[in-house]
Amino acid sequence: MDPELINDCVHCGFCLPTCPTYVLWGEEMDSPRGRIHLMRQHVEGTPLTDEMAGHFDACLGCMACVTACPSGVRYDRLIEQTRAEVEREHVREPGDRALRELVFQLFPYPRRLRAMRLPLRLSAGLRRRIAPRLERINPSLAAMADLAPESAGRPRLPRRVRAIGRRRAVVGMLTGCVQGEFFPQVNAATARVLAMEGCEVVIPPSQGCCGALSLHSGRPEQAGRFARRTVAAFERAGVDTVVVNAAGCGSTMKEYAEILDGEWAERARAIRTVDLAEYLVELGPVARRHPLPLTVAYHDACHLAHAQGVRSQPRALLTAIPGLELREIAESAICCGSAGTYNLFQPEAARELGERKAERVLATGADLLVSANPGCTMQITSAIRRAGTAPIRVAHTAQVLDASLRGTERIA
Question: How is the cofactor bound, in the record's words (predicted)?
Fold first, then answer.
């Protein structure tokens, strides 16, 4: 924990109404300034107690407070450092340790996730019958079963997708772990959209996890290994720009130069990471947009809006589609409760935030919810399903653009 970063906080309270856990519970120690107060206590010699660790664990790391802070406090860096300290010093209960080990030996590894797709699909089909029993046994396992997305086809991606028409750029594309295994259709749509906008898309076959889940959960060594492998994969592919369609991955990759040392930091700086919506707006459109008669509610993923500052670009892309009406969601800055692994480690708080978000999404009356992060998609879909009302379809920005560019109303 960096004392200089801690001292930047003047405890003004501007962060309070933006913090999801403070909004839920109204507890000072579950606000950013309250947690910074605890960090200061620990730096000054107070041992890391179970209660203190609990307040740090309860933070979603959504970074809404970073956006709201007038003093420029780097709470994002502070909570990353603090979580690493918690993992080093805090002795967790055996069940908690086992759950965390399961998650971090599964989710960052695409092949292992692939092997889990069938059991997760079965649990998705049985969720209504098994959820109450599983909830009593282990709320985190119940959350995992409830979040599992419905079965989808698995389109195969080539290693290179040629530009359609005049080639305007050559870019790499991150496929990700959760995105690649649970939402491969989003990656396929992303590659098609980039190609239709004149980009040659290079997709390295051995990418793996970018390190986001590990970094945001106090495992910097594991995150560093994944980051170095990702940098090396795109170096071998010969690209210096990487387009990312998952908010959490994009925000982490943009921080590679901060989390890596020496030569690897320099190598990371040589590769530019850019969000898909950010890149498409920067590039400018050439492909024709066909009408889509839809009302769309756009969800701001925290690691896109707060961490990367990408808010206007997805909205600009969507509103440029003829016939599409964009509707704003109330409390758009409040996290949906996904936050990487938060909905697995803090299922009760995540469930409450998910239901709050679902209520506001449904209030828009939109035909379609658009999200730019796989965790958000699973979290909000799950909460809408539990609400028991008329379901609303959920898609990625890339899928909506893909349908418009191809001239079909079928969003695939």
Answer: Binds 2 [4Fe-4S] clusters.
Inter-CA distances, 317 with 98, 157, 247, 335, 411, Å: 43, 24, 16, 23, 16
Question: Could you read off the pLDDT of 185-223 as tens digits, one per residue?
Answer: 999 999 999 999 999 999 998 788 999 999 989 999 999
> Is 350:343 a contact under the CB 8 Å cutoff?
yes
Query: Domain 288-406 falls in which CATH fold?
Result: Rossmann fold (3.40.50)
Q: Which two tokens stand for residue 362?
A: 């449904």
Structure tokens at 293: 């008669």
Q: Please name the CATH architecture into which domain 3-89 falls.
A: Orthogonal Bundle (1.10)
Residues 203 and 156: their CA atoms lie apart, in Å, by: 11
Annotated domain spans of the chain: 3-89, 288-406
Place of tokens 């606000």: 31
Q: What is the largest CA-CA distance in the chain?
A: 63
Query: Bridge-partner residues for 275, per DSSP?
Result: 244
Alpha carbon distance, N-terminus to C-terminus of the chain: 45
Q: Which residues of the chain have pLDDT under 70?
A: 116-148, 150-153, 390
At 56, the amino acid letter reads: F
Q: What is the pLDDT of residues 214-272, one digit of tens each?
A: 998 999 999 999 999 999 999 999 999 999 999 999 999 999 999 999 999 999 999 99
pLDDT for residue 106: 84
DSSP H or E stretch at residue 257: helix 256-259
Q: How far apart are CA 283 and CA 142, in angstroms?
A: 43
State how far the Cα of 357 lies from the Cα of 142, in Å rounded to an integer: 20
Burial class (CB in 10 A: 0-12, 13-18, 19+), 159: exposed
Task: Say what the pLDDT of residue 130 is.
Answer: 59
Q: What is the pLDDT of residue 95?
A: 86
